[in-house]
Predict the structure.
Amino acid sequence: MKQYRIEEVEQLHKMFRGYRSHDGFGWWFRGQANASWPLLPKAGRSEFLLPDGRDLGRFNHWIKHSIAYSEVDFPASRWEQLALAQHFGLATRLLDWSLNPLVATYFACATHMEVDGIVYLYSPTKFVREEVLDIKDAPTGLAYIPRSVNVRLLNQRAAFTVHHPPDDQITIEKLPFLPETDCLEAILVPANVKIELLQMLADYGVNEAFLFGGLDAWSSHVNRQTKNMVVRRRS
């Protein structure tokens, strides 16, 4: 997998010009705050990994009892239900991506400030057809773009890859329309530029309040601004 490294904010702007998303076709983006983490969904991590597709059993259990929460309007589509569960924190076989590179950059920088982050770039070639494909039969790397059934999915420009089994990683292949280019590449984000990148993203309106909505997210954003003020005052 080809991996680039940026040393300053301006480099990231230039790199993203070469990786465009056109309504889901083209490149997708995923940020991880620690570059050493594997590219896996939560259900594929060791602390959540269950054998024989039992992650879908846990998803069924979650759906059955989540309908008690009246503030959530559950869609009829099983795929959309799974996407909603993913965005509310359930360990699923879906891996989050975004059609907006700035959203991915936020997640690469927002936590673990002491270590390098990473932004993955993925160009999918096969997409989910919800009406003909059961979730349990979807292979690893298949791309899914849900309807914006809640504000998080909308603001984060959400997209997903399916992982079956959940600990199966995306196979790196050459793109059929760009035979010299891998379908998966990455940009390393050094720890020392994370704070500057977060400030740039905040200037563009990409922050907790926008991405997650609600008073708790707004409070988190204001707290982050306060910390930055304290750091600048002491420096």
